[in-house]
Amino acid sequence: MLILEKVLKFGLYFSLFTPLLVWDKLFFPYITSKAFVFYLLIEILLIIYLIILYKNPEKFKIKKDWILYSLLIFTVISFVTGLLGVDFYISFWSMFERMDGIFNLLHFFIFFILIRSVFGDKLDWIKFLRIAFIASVAVSGYGIYQHLFVLASDERIYSTIGNPIYLASYLIPHIFLGFYFIYYYLRGSNLKNNFTPHSVCGVDRVDNINSKVVPHSVCGVKKYLYSFWLWFYAIITGLNIWALFLTQTRGAMLGFFAGLIVLGVLLIIFSLNKKKLVFFYIFPILAIISLIISILWNTPPIERFKSSFTNPDITRIMQWDIAYKSFIERPVLGWGSGNYLIAQNKNYNPETLQFTGAKWNNAHNKVLEVAVESGAIGLLSYLFIFVAVVYLLLKSIKGNEMRNSILIGLFVAFFAQNIFIFDTFGSYLALFLSLGFVGFLAGKENNSEIKKAPDSFLFLILIAVLF
To answer: What is the reported pTM?
Structure first.
């Protein structure tokens, strides 16, 4: 069993690197290369997990919380609306160009269950998220390489993701998770209390993760200068932010700033009586952000971002109008997952050809896309995922003001960007990773209050998905 458990963990580690995969022998290689490997990997890991769960149901038992239930409800409704839609084949399998059908959603749902069940303590999550950071900096690093040596200075980077929009939506959750870990290290503790507080000077400090004893002389400012992991988090987060702006994706940048604003407002609200928090965190953050914006104000990414307000995208607005008319036509159950193109064909506005020569097969608005494809029922189930996350974070915010404010900012940024773009493989991976982490942090508070679903029920769901 021990070997299977290690295979299960390392398989989940490897899944974080699938955004780097590109094989030019496939149709739409930037999409299908990642998806096919991820699907096969998750199916193999699911078999291993079921074996372990059968032999030792207590060790890797399924963790049940409101996030799990919200994802289950959304998945079931997506299946039902697809089954009753206009083309179930497309709803289930999607198309090579997108790979975002029910089949894809089922695999990410299983991915969520696996990471919540396998990574059961705080040290496991620290290691898992560190590996996620390494994968993200490999993706953003290649994009920065494109900017410096391959593309023209004003061209948008796309890295191994294949599209600037896809790359930006993948990076945003990793950026906010980077903020989270920077804060935790500066605060002087990690998720498992492996460090004695930095405020304890005059004694040696034990770093249990790296099996080191840090001399007491490394105290004050020096303790940060000598910290590998602080520099690790800060540099990777900085590179991810740089890559985000080099994508010049206006919707993602709007989402990023929206997340920062919400983060700042929450910090001000929850730190009115904590002058130390204001002095050490809020003022430096505002100063750094102001300095960065002033430096980059006239660069191509910021110029493109400013054009969002002076020169709105008429094509996108017209697509939203088409999506709204399609939703009104089938408002309850929609057209079926992945069938936006069919709905668009029925309500197509030929005036869009004045502004673009391309025919979109997506509304470039995740909220409207879900409304068109799964109707009002599907839209409510989609919104419920974010409501459940924010509710759990607000509920446990006492004593975790900075931590939960950052994570709320993450989901605000992700949701705000999806008003202008749509989910892809990379964004799904980053989103479900973040959902799993929040579920872990809030799990203890929630498990004692929600109605328990029997393990046998969820076990049967896993068997059905495997079949």
So the answer is: 0.86
